[in-house]
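worker-3 :: picked Solute carrier family 2, facilitated glucose transporter member 5-like
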Amino acid sequence: MAITILTFCPESPRWLLMKGRDTKAYEALRKLRKNGNLRLEFDELVNEQNSTTCKPVSIWTVLRKKEFRYPIKIIFVVFFVQQFSGINMILAFSNNIYRNVGLSDENVQYAIIGSGASLLLSSCIAAPFIDTIGRKKLLIYPLAIMILMLIMETIALVYKIYILAIVCLYIYMMSFDISLGVIPQSLMVEYFQQDARSAASSIGVFISSSSNFAALWLFKPVIENEQIKNYVFVIFIVLCSISLVFLQIYVVETVNRKFEDINRDLKKHLNNHNTSQL
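worker-3 :: tokens ->
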């Protein structure tokens, strides 16, 4: 099904511009947008393409050069907290979590179905607002809700309140879905120009994959330990709280802004950070 659908998807306008196929790039953008000021957006894409180097920037260059240091730091944190927020551990070990609060095996299956339904619902609700509310707000406010839900989930585990445990996990997953589930990928595209975007994407994928492996490796023995399993979410509460403060201070908004404006703010933050260290 995916292969069939993808055959009807237009090519990336940015990629077509890189290949010098401007007319096809505009047609692809028109198919993707349907409405809005297409000419203005297309001109911005052309200006971005003209301002980049022809040769793609390597991963080592992105890690080493000062101009990429600030956005890479943000990308590192958002992809790290995406995995260490606990979402994959909850999905992978939801059976154990629901059983720990006293649910029977039969009811556990219904609770898991409800988890999937909550993720589907949040995706439908969030879609119209992702490009209007703002990246920073969609990171900060849902992350704060996630922290609160993990605290409540810990209370539910300790006192075996299964209704509270189910409700908190559903709200937690919905908050993740509209926030850390989508925003890191958006920031990775919007913080980097075309020549550095592939390298930045590779770095982001590596951070996400390695963080996911580390989180799952740490989570399994804890959830299976009878003495500490009820406090399994404490480490995620701490890491999410630290990340919340960092993101509130350092994330630069990107919605409805040109790349030149975003890049100017990133450089301003970098200069302020360097000045404060002197």
